[in-house]
Specification:
Distance between the termini: 23 Å
Mean pLDDT: 95
Strand order of the largest sheet: 1-8-7-6-5-4-3-2
Low-confidence stretches: none
Largest sheet: 8 strands, parallel
CATH class: Alpha Beta
Number of strands: 8
Number of domains: 1
Strand content: 15-25%
Oligomer: single chain
Order of helices and strands: EHEHEHEHEEHEHEHH
CATH superfamily: Aldolase class I
Shape: globular
Radius of gyration: 16 Å
């Protein structure tokens, strides 16, 4: 794991949606490595957020170097691959529970020249994604039930991260849901190196400090040093 980068990607779901470009710039200037964009369709999850048109508009206001990690909480994810690619998405992360043919979705994402993320819900055993790890760029372990921001971090999801890290030491493992300086050490110790943080970063008066705290924790555990005194 020591060779993997520690990456912090704020979720903009809880930002001021009337000023996504400004909010995104603020987060990037505060040290964010990428932006996590939550797309919800009201079918796969009981909420609706935004889709390709908003992502395309946001891309036009930001540098093309900004990495868009698009988290697709949608039914039939293959329907939206081309739209997200055209909107400027860099990674298309889909839920393994959302399709009967994950490999078909993976092939479609790769053909659209995007990175592939595969996501597993809290109630789904982590071995459900094992057959696809060799074909994806990132695995995302949900640490809340997908669909709403601001939920409490589920510590009991950490064994999934531990299993993935032991089995796939070079895999980018992302965690999403309720992450903050209070619980980051638990996730970092388990082996997560990509941290999605929404409320704790976006609503902070000092987002740079929160991002640095998250990153420092991941770096400490990567080095095997644990918490500092």
């Amino acid at each position: 794991m020591s060779s993997l980068r520690s990456l912090i990607g704020p979720s903009i779901l809880n930002a001021d949606l009337a000023d996504l470009a400004g909010e995104s710039q603020r987060l990037l200037q505060s040290g964010a490595d990428y932006l996590h964009l939550d797309v919800m369709d009201g079918h796969f999850v009981p909420n609706i957020t935004f889709g390709a048109p908003v992502i395309k508009s946001l891309r036009q206001h930001l540098s093309h170097d900004v990495y868009f990690d698009v988290h697709m909480m949608v039914a039939e994810p293959e329907r939206w691959i081309q739209d997200i690619a055209a909107a400027g998405g860099n990674r298309f992360a889909f839920h393994v529970e959302s399709t009967d043919d994950p490999m078909r979705v993976i092939r479609g994402i790769k053909e659209a020249k995007m990175d592939v993320g595969i996501v597993v819900n809290p109630k789904t055993p982590v071995d459900k994604i094992f057959p696809y790890i060799g074909s994806v760029d990132m695995a995302l372990i949900m640490t809340v039930e997908p669909g709403f921001g601001g939920q409490k971090f589920m510590t009991d999801m950490m064994p999934k991260v531990e299993i993935l890290r032991e089995k796939y030491p070079d895999l980018d493992i992302e965690v999403d849901g309720g992450l903050s300086p209070v619980n980051i050490d638990v996730a970092a110790k388990a082996g997560a190196n990509c941290i999605v943080a929404g409320t704790s970063v976006v609503k902070s008066e000092d987002p740079r400090s929160v991002i640095e705290t998250l990153r420092n924790s991941v770096n400490r555990w990567k080095r095997g040093g644990g918490q500092t005194s």
